[in-house]
């Protein structure tokens, strides 16, 4: 299994009693996680420095409590790093760097921030496959993403080579991902097509 351990702007610092302490860039967040079944002391100093805490409601859902957390902020991730499995992922055919991805984050009402950091290993994997495909510019790689939830995969795939991603997502997320795309310079010259239900074929 590959582990997403090449992040510089994201890290899980501690976990206890159904919650995890994470650092997203310069900010500490505490969010619920049902897989954290152990109850250990909150010894990490980040628990006392939290900038945001999502409290789960017994009736479902929950709400954020903020402590000097901005409405939005950015973190970045550098593609083209070797996977933890020990098997380096293929780089661009021209020897250049795959690119630095910039993600704009914000706390949503359902505890998410607009990004799933553990997916970085998948970004590395498929961007490597795209770069290795050796297709001519006239035949771009086409991607059908049926669960384009945050736009992270699109940002990761675009700088890997010529491609035409097609997305099936909600109108709200299209608007949010479009804003993300504008902040990630590697995407300005790539072709993309966005769609919400009903879906259209390539």
Report on this model:
The strands form three sheets. The chain has a five-stranded mixed sheet, with no helix packed on it. A hairpin with a 2-residue loop joins β1 (10-16) and β2 (19-24). The protein has helices at residues 120-132, 152-157, 171-182, and strands at 10-16, 19-24, 27-32, 52-56, 62-66, 73-78, 100-105, 141-145, 163-168, 193-195. The longest helix is centred in the middle third of the chain and has 13 residues, at 120-132. The chain is elongated, with a radius of gyration of 18 Å. The model is unreliable at 81-98, 164-169, 185-191 and 193-202 (pLDDT under 50). It is an alpha/beta fold and 202 residues long.
Helix and strand topology:
Layout: E1 10-16, E2 19-24, E3 27-32, E4 52-56, E5 62-66, E6 73-78, E7 100-105, H1 120-132, E8 141-145, H2 152-157, E9 163-168, H3 171-182, E10 193-195
Parallel strand pairs: 3-4, 8-9, 9-10
Antiparallel strand pairs: 1-2, 2-3, 4-5, 6-7
Compact overview of the structure:
With 202 residues, this protein is an alpha/beta fold. Helix content is 15%, strand content 27%. A five-stranded mixed β-sheet has the order 1-2-3-4-5, with no helix packed on it. Strands 8-9-10 form a three-stranded parallel β-sheet, with no helix packed on it.
């Amino acid at each position: 299994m590959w582990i997403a351990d090449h992040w510089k702007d994201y890290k899980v610092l501690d976990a206890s009693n159904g919650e995890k302490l994470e650092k997203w860039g310069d900010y500490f967040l505490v969010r619920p996680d049902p897989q954290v079944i152990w109850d250990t002391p909150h010894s990490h100093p980040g628990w006392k420095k939290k900038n945001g805490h999502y409290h789960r409601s017994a009736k479902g859902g929950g709400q954020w409590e903020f402590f000097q957390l901005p409405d939005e902020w950015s973190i970045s991730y550098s593609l083209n790093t070797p996977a933890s499995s020990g098997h380096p992922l293929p780089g661009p055919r021209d020897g250049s760097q795959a690119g630095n991805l910039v993600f704009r984050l914000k706390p949503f009402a359902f505890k998410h921030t607009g990004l799933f950091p553990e997916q970085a290993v998948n970004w590395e994997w498929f961007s490597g496959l795209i770069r290795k495909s050796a297709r001519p510019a006239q035949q771009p790689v086409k991607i059908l993403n049926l669960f384009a939830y945050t736009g992270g995969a699109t940002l990761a795939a675009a700088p890997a080579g010529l491609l035409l991603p097609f997305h099936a997502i909600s109108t709200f997320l299209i608007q949010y991902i479009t804003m993300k795309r504008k902040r990630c310079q590697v995407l300005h010259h790539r072709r993309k097509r966005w769609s919400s239900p009903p879906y259209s074929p390539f």
